[in-house]
Amino acid sequence: MRHKKKFNHLNRTSSHRHALLSNMAVSLIMHKRITTTVAKAKALRMYVEPLITKSKTDEMHSRRVVFSYLGQKEAINELFREIAPKIANRPGGYTRILRIGNRVGDNAEMCIIELVDYNETYTEVKKEVKKPTRRRRSGGGAKSAETKPAVAEVKPEVVEEAPKEEVPAVEEEVAAPVVEEKAE
Question: CATH top-level class for 14-118?
Answer without folding.
Answer: alpha beta
